[in-house]
Amino acid sequence: MYNIDLTFIQSKEFEGEIDRPDQVYNELLRNYITKSVCPNKLETDYCDNCSVLLERNLPNDSRNIIEVNSCGMNGHHFCEIKITNGFKIGKHDIIITKSEDYTEIVTVDEVGKIVKIRRERLGMANEDIPEVVRIATEDDLEKFRNNLKDEVKARPIFQEKVHKYNLNMKLVDVHFQFDRKRLFFFYTSDGRVDFRELAKELAGIFKTRIELRQMGVRDEAKKMGGLGSCGREYCCSSFLHNFKRITTQIASDQNNSTNLSKLSGPCCKLKCCLSFEVEESN
């Protein structure tokens, strides 16, 4: 969301002038957004111009926090960097994080002051969040690749056992926690499913704790990804981190067609982008 696609620019156009123009100009863009959203935040810890912050009266969160994304239960979330001595993390770096009961591999989505502003706008401060352990080593990446291979192997086993117990479950995704203490199966279903016997048999096969998580069709579209009717990546996969309630009244207020098939996304729900033109009051 905070990046300009500069892949169309040939590096030779900047030869001898700018090293890595994509990073340089995207850093300028993020600084510009930060100044536009909250002009005083670059110089002070508190902005007198933000009435939203004044109303919430949030405590100051001085921790060094970054935005990350993972394939597991956490999805898009925040992590704290406690390591000092010149330790630096950049966008798109792959890192290892830990919490009380798990260790996970994640990709860095955003760093810097814009993360602090975003968290304050979301009303988040001083909550418990995972901690950054290190930048992923080659051994970590090899372990991650092995986990991915085992996830692929787990799919047909799951589907076979679902058929055995005659359960109404559609498999969406499989995820091995980085430390392999848990194996997640994400599925959709029209109703509640009694999967106790299924979980027991899967635990005996994979020798780890099994977590079966039911999700809605919008969450399925977000996890699977794809291209919408506009030709761009799904909004929910690329930059939306939570879902708003979309109603036909929103479409009607914008004089859009009443043909629901044209207003529905691949998840068969009303498109998230219908809410982009709706004015919100803080």
Structure description:
- By secondary structure, the chain is α+β, with helices and mostly antiparallel strands.
- The protein folds into three domains: 58-135, no CATH class; 141-215, K homology (KH) domain (GMP Synthetase, Chain A, domain 3, 2-Layer Sandwich), CATH 3.30.300; 220-277, no CATH class.
- 33% of the residues lie in helices and 17% in strands.
- It is built from nine helices and eight strands.
- It has helices at residues 21-37, 51-56, 113-121, 138-164, 196-206, 217-224, 235-238, 248-253, 260-263; strands at residues 65-69, 76-80, 94-98, 103-110, 131-135, 170-176, 182-188, 209-214.
- It has a five-stranded antiparallel sheet with strand order 2-1-4-3-5, covered by helices on one side.
- It is flat and about 60 Å long.
- It starts with 20 loop residues before the first helix and ends in a 19-residue tail after the last helix.
What labels would you give this structure?
three-stranded mixed beta sheet; flat; 3 domains; five-stranded antiparallel beta sheet; 9 helices; GMP Synthetase, Chain A, domain 3; alpha+beta; about 280 residues
How do you describe this structure in short?
The protein is of the alpha+beta class.
Low-confidence stretches: 41-56
- Count of structural domains: 3
Q: What overall geometry do the principal axes of the alpha carbons give?
A: flat
Spatial strand order of the main sheet = 2-1-4-3-5
- Radius of gyration, Cα only, in angstroms? 22 Å
Biggest beta-sheet profile: 5 strands, antiparallel
Number of DSSP strand runs = 8
Note the beta-strand portion. 15-25%
Distance between the termini: 22 Å
How many helices?
Answer: 9
Overall pLDDT confidence: 79
Question: What structural class do helix, strand and pairing data support?
Answer: alpha+beta
N-to-C order of helices and strands = HHEEEEHEHEEHEHHHH
| Helical content class | 25-40%
